[in-house]
Task: structure prediction
Amino acid sequence: MILIGMYDSPFVRRVAVSLRLLEVPFEHRNWSVHRDFELIRQFNPLGRVPALVQPDGEALIDSNAILDFLDDTAGPERALLPPSGDERRRALHIISLALGAADKGLVLLDETLFRPPAKSHEPRIDRARNQMHGALAEIDRLAQMQSGEWLVAGRMTQADITLTCVFGFLCDALQPGQSWVLYPGLTALSARCEALPAFRELRAKFTPGESALTLEHDRIAR
Ligand SMILES: N[C@@H](CCC(=O)N[C@@H](CS)C(=O)NCC(=O)O)C(=O)O
Result:
């Protein structure tokens, strides 16, 4: 299988880490949604990543659909999302909050990086920032309520994977001016995950001029 998309995207990275944890071999195409837009559109008409291309050429799109396929293939014993009941509901709740925070982080990047300053709309920025922090604060509260190492089910699940990928992305992209110290539960959990080989080896590679995050890093470095 071929995974399309750069690891600085939390959506791509959560699929990559899941493939690795489920021991599914894959090739990686480090294609940029900017530079390689037309190439990506051959596999996803939306021009978005991730896309996972099957050996028969069929492309799965959207990280949720891809992860559902991977779990279905792995079977209920190995699936990364708990199969049913409270654990599944709680994991999906955390995943929804984390993905929502990522979406709002992307709005912030769009507003602050890509829109000319004269056209940026401060109320929209404030709203997105509040929504992102609201979601992170809630996950942090839930993380701190756990007695064990993981968010649900007493083992690493898709909730931990997604949260770590999203939190890493937000810290990298938006750190200046943000108060990540507000989230000790998230910081501890993501540090635990990031230390594992699957996360360590599948990290964003910032290549100048290719990704939104690179642009943000360049801007901060100046
Ligand atoms: N819901 C999608 C979101 C994917 C997404 O937004 N990917 C971004 C990269 S971080 C992208 O492709 N952006 C390019 C665009 O939408 O034009 C998923 O979970 O896969």
Q: What stands out?
A: The chain has a mean pLDDT of 89. Residues 9, 11, 33, 47-50, 62-64 surround glutathione (CB under 6 Å).
